[in-house]
Structures are given as C-alpha cells and as structure tokens.
Amino acid sequence: MTFERVGIGPDSVTIMELKNAVDNPIITFPHPSKLNENTEFYIPVHKINQTGLSLMNSAKTETLYRLRETISNWAFYSTYGLQSDKIRRSVLIEQTPKLNEDAGNLSAVLFFLMTEHRRAFDEIQDLLRQIVPAFTGLTVKARGGPGEIMAFWREGDQELTLADVSDGILRLLCWMVLCVMPNPPSLICIDEPDQGVHPRTLPILAGLFRRASQRTQILLATHNSYFLTQFDFGEIAVMRKKDRNIEFLKPAHSQVLIDMLADFGSQELEHLHRSDELELLP
Description:
This protein is α+β, with helices and mostly antiparallel strands and 282 residues long. It has two domains: 3-72, no CATH class; 75-231, Rossmann fold. Helices cover 31% and strands 23% of the residues. The strands form four sheets. The protein has a four-stranded antiparallel beta sheet with strand order 1-2-3-4, with no helix packed on it. The protein is flat and about 65 Å long.
C-alpha cells in the first residue's frame, strides 16, 4: 500500500490521504473543516499492506471511524476460496460465529443456528428438502476433541458427516447459511456462487439471495447465463472493459435491450449474455 484516498459527497471531495506509506507514512486531511481534525499527522505502519483507514480509531475522526467500522463488517466469499478439506473437519464451538472466508467453521455456524436461531436452521433444512429429495435432516453433534463439533447429514436411515457429502452440497450449505444468518454483514459479496452446484438448484439459490437482499446488500458475480436469467432485469449489472477502464452498466437503462426483450422474450437475455452481445449494447 503506497497511496490511499478517501472521498466524500457527490463530487468525491478528498477528506483523507495516505502518502509515502512505505518510507515516511503521513496522513493528511485536505479539508479538515469536514472532519474537525488537524491537517496532518504521522502514523506507525506495522504491516506492509496496512491501510490508513484501518488506523482511524479516534473519536476525533468520527466520520472516518464510522466508515472503517462499516467496511470492516463487509464479507467477501468466492466459490474457489472455500476450503472443503477444512469444512469436512470437526471444529471448536464459537459463541457468535461468522462464516469464515474459507468456510472452515461451517459446522460451528450451523451449531449456532441450531441452538440459538432454530427458525433459520429449519429454513435451511426446508430448502435442502426441495433440492435433495433423499435429504431428511441436518444436525450438529460433539465430535473430535474437547469442545469440538461436526455437522451431520441424514438421508433416510443413513447419517453422514460433512466429510462424506459432495463439494456441491457444502457450497450450497455455505450460501444458505449466509442468507439466513441473523444480523448479516452490511454487504455480502460472492464470486460465482453458481459454480459447482447442480443447475436445478439455481432458481432456488437465486430466490434465496433475493430474499436475503431485503435484509442486507448482496453483490453476486457470475458468468452463468442461466443463473443470470433467474434475476429480474433491474437487478442485473454488467461490468465491461473500455480503454483500460472498467464501466458499470445497468442493462435496464438500455432502450435497445428493452425493445429486444419485448420482441423476443426474456430468454433473449440469456442468448445475449452467452454471445457477449450484452456488453456491447448502448
């Protein structure tokens, strides 16, 4: 981290800058009147990638402190970042767990829901019954060392641990947990949640994310055309590269696309995405 800037307002007025973070770190406040703070001060940088915003822990910089607290609550996940080998092991009980980025504490989160938020836990079970007809129940038991637990999956009279179920089921459990958790992060970002799960689960998964978005902000990235069609037109955004820059587009604002969907139906959206024409529309 060699430079950092925080802006505020519609014109993105700079309210904090971190310069020369490697050699001589200085935080400056070009518009101190907006923060009621001194114009600059020296800060110690203990980690090579430490940000200036992460050091805003003073009541004097209330705006930046609140911003830091908001961002620190954000959660980022990727299908490719989930560590199935960790998920399949027994884990220690946690008092109020948050699903780790690698989901290694999935059993601890399920135990928390089972014992403290039974309605959310039962919602997961109901969803699984829709997706896996043979599924009969989910539970979490003591297993492993002292204070350790593991989730168990039941199909009829057979009981399996998470070590025995498929990677696709593990991914589904992770996304379901994120969507039903009480007090979710203010922003949940998931990279390609559609990967590694059966296509028949995608409509249910999309509906689950939509319901969760009523309680918090959900941002999903996908290259799956079929998954894309499970969302309303107005919920979709396109990111495209142009002249080495990234543009954020809302297809719902394109009159050309609106007319095409009116003529050919909603399935045209899937075709346009698959052929890359969606990114080229004005």
